[in-house]
Design brief:
single chain; mainly alpha; 74% helix
């Protein structure tokens, strides 16, 4: 979507590198414009005004938004450099481009870590209401830095950024850069947990919106900076790299727009709020995003096409007027985009410290349920609650929408080229995600946050019912057929899937015993450890819990009845034995839960004090009965599916043997009879 800086001329050969980039000029433009925009935004929004009580001083009030700008830009540079090095640049050009990207990412990560660490100091001064030079400030900071969420999150981000910096300084392969990219994205999560929108009534929606917004912005802007750094090294591969970046930038732009709309829905109460200082800064961000989207569309429509055309020519004309015209277009788009991106980042930094116009109306409730779960207390459940009680979890709705949309796009791609794809697989996949959304956003998800029995309904649905619908959809098979093959040794989506399918890790996990152990023993460990209460109390724990439920259930079902490519599968009889043993353990888990005299996560459930759950232990007993009973139906379905596959496999083997016999005159049977005759003669 976004443009990239141009080369001074096109390559004269397949892999001839050009000179380097334009130095730090793109970064200087981005940071300079961002600082100006941040200062203007702070003045307009009044984010640096002195506090009536507990004022930490002008240095803290001005330092927090400006430091946030440096923090976000350095995070963007780190993520963008790692992304381009791991997935976009071909390996057929000089290998020092990856070293350059890795070392640059290490420098950016150091700046990121420093900004996060300094941010903890300023955040503590702001929270405590004391100036930086106050007596005993250092002692108080060291005593409370791990106790406060804002400072603790900053330390976690700084720690992950340091890990990325150390790794990037020694990394040389695209696989290493890919793993470092994952750590860098993970480092954004604490930032989202302590963001401005996270303090609103919809805490979870605010956290999810900020996290997705940060990822989209870092990928978009950071990728552009990375291409500016290595554009001179890419030679004739610049066109392919720019085209791939345009696709990634398009996804990032969509993530930014949708998450921004969700954030506005959470933080604004009416259209009149746009007339406030907060609304004015939001308006600036909206305008810049629209303009950037138009520029990205222009690049995708014309500039990338011109680069690819010059690449195909690869002759004397490529160094002439056409190349100069493409260069000029690149430079113009780059300059405008960097200015707009700087304005957007500066406005975002100012917005992080500007109160929403109706902040008192958006303040979360103060009851015990919200304090413990970050969700409003649901009403007493009735029969109608099963279908009319909803609390949309936008994170999982977005995951489901993307999974369904991408799957349908792949099916359409196959049909356009004349390949068929079974309709039942498509229906199964779509229905699986619809059921997933119900169990996470419908009544089981709503009441499962405060009631053990409802929680067990949600758990059984997500871990046992949803995988039974998703696995028959064969998404890996579809992806391998629909995704394009990259021939320049880069890591594309198809290459990542193939690496996963043939990895040693999957060979271990695909063992039915291992998959069953993960499915059951992780269940027991989760509920009889502090992890259960952590998942109930924290957003991070809740998200990790849902990921584990889906992943462990999908792995178990895939090992038993999956049709996607992977390691050699076990014999169906062995699968049935493992299935029934696992079900026995699962039934034992339900029986133990039903007869237990100890309340799990007792401090949590006792503190809720809900009138419609007078006895949390009795509710836990109901949950154990649900775990015992609900597990029977999916198990029966799995057993029938394994048996059906067994029958189909035997039938296919018999057909194969019959055809072989027709071709060779039943040579196998003749050889067997001859062997029997020889034995008889010897006797």
């Amino acid at each position: 979507m976004s443009s990239v800086p141009a080369t001074t001329s096109t390559t004269t050969g397949p892999t001839t590198p050009q000179g380097g980039g334009r130095g730090p000029l793109p970064l200087v433009i981005l940071v300079g414009v961002g600082l100006v925009a941040a200062v203007v935004g702070v003045l307009v929004g009044g984010a640096a005004q002195s506090y009536p009580i507990g004022d930490p001083g002008a240095l803290v009030r001005w330092g927090l938004p400006l430091l946030r700008l440096i923090h976000d830009l350095s995070a963007s540079a780190t993520i963008g450099l790692l992304l381009v090095g791991a997935f976009l640049v071909p390996e057929t050009v000089r290998t020092n481009h990856r070293v350059t990207l890795a070392r640059s990412a290490a420098v950016a990560a150091v700046v990121w870590a420093a900004a996060a660490l300094v941010g903890t100091v300023l955040s503590f001064a702001d929270t405590a209401g004391i100036t930086l030079g106050s007596p005993g400030f250092v002692d108080q900071y060291l005593a409370f830095v791990l106790e406060l969420e804002t400072t603790r999150g900053g330390l976690i981000t700084a720690g992950l950024a340091i890990v990325v910096a150390i790794g990037a300084s020694i990394a040389r392969t695209k696989g290493a850069l890919a793993w470092l990219l994952a750590f860098a994205v993970l480092a954004l999560w604490p930032v989202a947990l302590n963001g401005h929108s996270s303090a609103s009534r919809d805490h979870m929606g605010g956290v999810n919106a900020i996290f997705v917004h940060l990822i989209g912005a870092c990928v978009w802007v950071g990728g552009l900076l990375a291409l500016a750094l290595v554009r001179g090294m890419l030679g004739r591969h610049l066109a392919a790299t720019v085209r791939r970046y345009s696709v990634v930038a398009g996804w990032a732009y969509g993530a930014i727009v949708l998450s921004g709309i969700l954030a506005l829905w959470i933080n604004l109460t009416s259209w009149g709020d746009f007339l406030s200082a907060y609304g004015a800064i939001v308006g600036v961000k909206v305008v810049t995003l629209v303009l950037l989207g138009l520029l990205g569309w222009q690049q995708r429509r014309s500039v990338v096409a011109r680069l690819e055309s010059l690449d195909r020519e690869a002759g004397p004309a490529a160094d002439g007027t056409s190349a100069k015209g493409a260069t000029a277009t690149f430079v113009r788009l780059l300059a405008v985009e960097l200015v707009l991106m700087g304005i957007a980042f500066g406005a975002a930094a100012a917005l992080s410290r500007t109160p929403a116009p109706a902040e008192e109306l958006l303040a979360p409730p103060t009851d015990a349920v919200y304090e413990l779960t970050q969700y409003p207390a649901p009403p007493e459940p009735t029969t109608a609650s099963w279908w009319n009680e909803w609390l949309i979890d936008w994170l999982w709705v977005a995951v489901a929408a993307v999974a369904v949309g991408v799957y349908l796009a792949w099916v359409l791609r196959l049909r356009r080229r004349g390949d068929a794809w079974p309709v039942l697989r498509t229906i199964s996949w779509v229905l699986g995600w619809v059921v997933f959304v119900y169990f996470t956003s419908g009544a089981p998800g709503v009441y499962g946050k405060v009631s053990f029995s409802w929680h067990m309904v949600m758990h059984m649905g997500v871990a046992m019912i949803v995988p039974l619908l998703l696995v028959p959809g064969a998404p890996i098979t579809l992806a391998l057929r629909a995704l394009p093959v990259r021939k320049d040794k880069t890591l594309g989506p198809r290459e990542l899937l193939l690496a996963l399918v043939h990895s040693r890790y999957l060979q271990v996990l695909a063992n039915p015993i291992i998959a069953a152990a993960i499915f059951f023993f992780s269940l027991a460990i989760f509920y009889w450890s502090p992890l259960f209460e952590l998942a109930l109390r924290t957003h991070t724990g809740h998200v990790l819990m849902m990921i584990h439920f889906v992943a462990s259930g999908y792995l178990f079902a895939w090992v038993l009845v999956g049709i996607d490519p992977g390691p050699k599968r076990a014999h169906p009889l062995f699968k049935l034995v493992v299935l029934f043993v696992t079900v026995s353990f699962h039934a034992f888990f339900g029986v133990v839960m039903t007869d237990s005299s100890t309340l799990l996560a007792a401090p949590f459930f006792d503190a809720l004090d809900l009138s419609w759950i007078p006895d949390p232990l009795a509710d836990q007993h109901r949950g154990g009965a649900i775990a015992w009973g609900v597990g029977e139906a999916p198990t029966l379905v799995l057993a029938l599916m394994v048996a059906a596959q067994w029958v189909r496999s035997d039938r296919a083997e018999q057909i194969r043997r019959d055809r072989q016999a027709d071709r060779d005159g039943d040579a196998e049977l003749a050889a067997y009879n001859a062997d029997l005759a020889r034995r008889a003669d010897r006797g």
